[in-house]
Predict the 3D structure of the following.
Amino acid sequence: MRHVHTLIQGVILGVLTSGVFALMASGQTLIFGIMKVVNLAQGAMVILGAYLSYQLFTSFGLDPFLAIPVTTVIMFVLGVAVQWLFLRPLRKDDRSELSLLITFAVALLIEGVMSITWHTTSRSINTGYANSSWSLFGYQITLVRLWAFLLSLAVLGLLYLLLNHTRFGRAVRATVQNPESAKLLGIEADRVSALGFGLGAATAAAAGSVYGLLYPFNPGSHYDLISKLLSIVILGGLGSVGGAVLGALIASTSSAVVAATVSPAWSEMTFFVILIAILLVRPQGIFGTTVRSA
Amino acid sequence: MKRKKHSKRTWQAAVATCTLALAASGCASGSDSADSGHGPLVIGASVSLTGDFADNGKAVQRGYQLWADSINAKGGLLGRKVKFKIVDDLSSPSQVITNYQNLINRDHVNLVFGPFSSLLTVPASQVAKRYGYAFLEPAGGGPQVFDQHLHNLFFVQPAPSVSSGDVFAKWVLSLPAGQRPKTAAYAELDDPFASPIAENIRTAFEAAGIKTVYKQVYPAETTDLSPVISGVAAAHPDVLVSGTQSNDAYAQVKSLVQLKFSPKFIFMSNGANSPLEFPDKVGAGNTSGIMSAGDWYPSSTAAGSAEFAAAYVKKYGGTAQQIDNTSAEAYSCGQLLEDVAKKTAKIDNATIIKSLHSGSWPTLLGDLAWNADGAPTSEFSLVQWQGGKLLPVYPAAKAQAAPVYPKPNWGG
């Protein structure tokens, strides 16, 4: 009985946590989809989002959820700037390879700036409701995680609408599917790329606010994050937002359930076993399409 | 009391570098400038002002500097002004060797004090040993430090880091049988400065018949402790023993509150003993009744404690609650020099080493004495959060309040 209870509590925790990872990973996969750029700075951008949210909360008492419109705008601008300054000048032929170095450099740059600004001590955002939870049939539903999950659903919903029901979204999808034809149809690839990168950074900001509520963070936290994000995105299929969501759900739930019932030492391992198993059957990830040569 | 582990390879590299540097300089041990008897007394120390240990390193620096200010205001040590030469080691075990080599060979400092962490203390203490320098160090308390069997090293805390929780086991087992916990859960961070502390307690508890109903060791990269704590909650132990560092301690408490589980006793090896960070991270109302181990706390009545706290607040601002105990540990290194000078009227390395190896010495952290390897032989105090304050509750000689148990519910 005790083990069943632990198992179900683990599932609840995992599902609720998956939202925030889905949010981070959707930005990551979007950037890859549009530009074929693996953005190694996505984790650092999430942590920067968390710091911005932390600062707004400690300086102005602004609730992290309400801070999201502010932080997403700031990070959107930053994302556009990064694309414009560092990625656009790369030659198209070797953009995919060089972008790894460039985005890693950007991650280190962001980490350095955060260390100087906020020092290396871990921070966390402690709102009045940070530790509240609802009891439901003997199980605890943590409010922060529930809000985070709902917020992630809302942001992902917006992203879906943006990609599927706007001109910009059509341009993005066209670029993802066939960059050459998209260009022939008059889509400005550079502009779509800049906006796409900005959008990826904006989702990182939204995820960062929530991440700061759930976990303590410091400037070095992005290393753990980026490895997790890359695995989620690869599991779901590079470039697929739906895949990112499913990948996050599998990653979070398997890791929480194994940590609760077996040991946290095995939780990451279990996820990687699932990842390898799925990649053996579907090398392109669950929802991925085979990558065209860039 | 946060310490980092170090790898065997780093250690080997450190020794190799030491040996090479020695061969190159052709130096014998013993420093001729150590007791020149005139001019200012210069104490060299390598401190992490940048890198992973930057915040802790700065706390060490503050402790050293405050003691220098205090002794200079009293006319100096044996009439000589005390000056610190502090250099940054970037939290790097190789830089720390270079730094102590330079401090001793190039700058000819009279004495040296230790850096932050066991990781840096091990290579640094080897350099000090080669040159016959006494090595008073406030922050290297891991087993690997004492395994070196150095005669010149003195760890300036009440006990080796892994024994810091023994006082909790001692207190629990001193309770009348009817009031003792019957079942225990252990949630331990896989770290040489966390898990062994809880394991020592488990050994004592199991020997006394307290049943282990849950035990989990989690890797350092675990940010989400809710799954572990949900396992603890499901096992319903009377006592939770947490082998924690800092962030994981906060995460454990937050998860316990969220899962609405409040055991009768909670002991956390570290994290919960931070007067400033802990209430800030978990919410002041949730600290009540949580126990930890401590060597210095703002309300300490140890010799010089009030003077230290006042001087700290005057120089660095804030309140006494915000003082990191690392600063008190660093300050205590200076107090020991002061005591040796007072007792022997000399202040050279050989006298310091010889003196500190006999008798016990009063500091902010209580009376300290060491075994032949520099491991302190005293014990930590059991501290407990009561009414928003961290108070020593055991042993009785140091207690400022009676221990409260069972632990009040969350938010109370």
Q: What stands out?
A: The radius of gyration of chain B is 21 Å. Confidence is low (pLDDT under 50) at residues 1-8, 18-35 of chain B. The longest strand of chain B covers residues 211-218.
